[in-house]
Fold this sequence. Notes:
In chain A, 7% of the residues lie in helices and 49% in strands.
Amino acid sequence: MKRFILSACLLALALPATSFAHKVWLRPSQTVFSGPEPWVTVDAAVSNDLFYFNHFPLRLDGLEIVAPDGNTVEAQNQSVGKYRSVFDLPLTQQGTYRIAVVHRGAFASFESEGQRRRWRGSAEALQTEIPAGATNVRVTESLGRVETFVTNGAPTLESLEPTGEGIELIPLTHPNDLYSGETAKFRFLVNGKPVPEMEISVVRGETRYRNSQDELHVVTDGNGEFSVTWPEPGMYWLQTSAEDKQTKIPEAQSRRMSYAGTLEVLPQ
Amino acid sequence: MQLNRIAPLLLLALGGIAAAPAEDLQVSVEIPRLNVSEYHRPYVAVWIQDKDRTCVANLSVWYQMRSSAEGAGTKWLPDLRQWWRRSGRRLNMPVDGVSGATRPAGKHTLTFASDDPRLADLKPGRYSLVVEASREVGGRELVEIPFAWPAESSTTKRAEGSEELGEVTFTLKPSS
Lengths: 268, 176
């Protein structure tokens, strides 16, 4: 069962946006906080609709939380349920926290005993799980980042420093300073560098209560920058993907990277 | 945002009356009497912003100051959404002479002298007085009154809220 869930998550993370309907997301209870020690609680799931729990929980194995001072902190009360995972985080520092689930894995297709087979799992398991004598082996590495941001007090930038690995969102407008009717600007970095013409889809939550996805499509410019004018307040989901050949797994021919972020847009 | 009987800080906020002879800027804020099943006094912020909506003077913030496990009501300050964005999130509450306890329904008058340190640095130009109110299990409302500084003649401007704020009046007198 656990393997099944993990596989489903990796599948969702690994495939480009056009080929899967499932959305991977973290949803914080709120993004703007005040007080000596407010707590945020976060849901994590893979679902068809935003932000409803109707498919799989998102495993928290790759949970990485960066505090305002740049250090890593641990989530509390982690729990994986039938349809969602949950964790809490006390915001003991003033400033912005980056909360991310980073998945590293691989998927492979090969022929064995005359059968076409597919496999997904961790890079470590790759060696042992593909049978000896398999032919037509194609291995793809996958690196997915699912994240959100929360701020206690005034927004800060220390926790948003890029790691240089995979797709990362760089704020030109702070992700916890978004208001409906205003235009926010961001930059995507792929392995620390801007990539033009990345296709980004932006969807507001509460899709269950409307008849269309109302998806916005934006594209990065030469600096990897893009802007979004928020049509109305709500929790938004932002997704993009990219591919390269900078694999860390020797057997892999290519690497697929994905990014999914949740941003809260407040009313004016 | 519960009923609060602590008044000393409220007096502190109004300290300008006693300390300064000139009354150059006066703001009156009406908190309407609401017939709702669960009433809480509103959080209210009064500030002056420039044409870029940068807060240039924080005049008053009323919130639940009584100690609680959650830190004297500061948890709900971001509900004053625009004030929080323009200035609140960078402040260390409480702020002397600015923050005070929540107030009951009725008209409340704030008076400031032109030599008040918050106004002394105001450059000549166009500004807005902004009053924002937000109430627990209630609504939120923002009222804005544009004005020119310094005042050339005595002027009084009015604005009316529709839900969480009643009449807001703003009086400017030239410094004598």
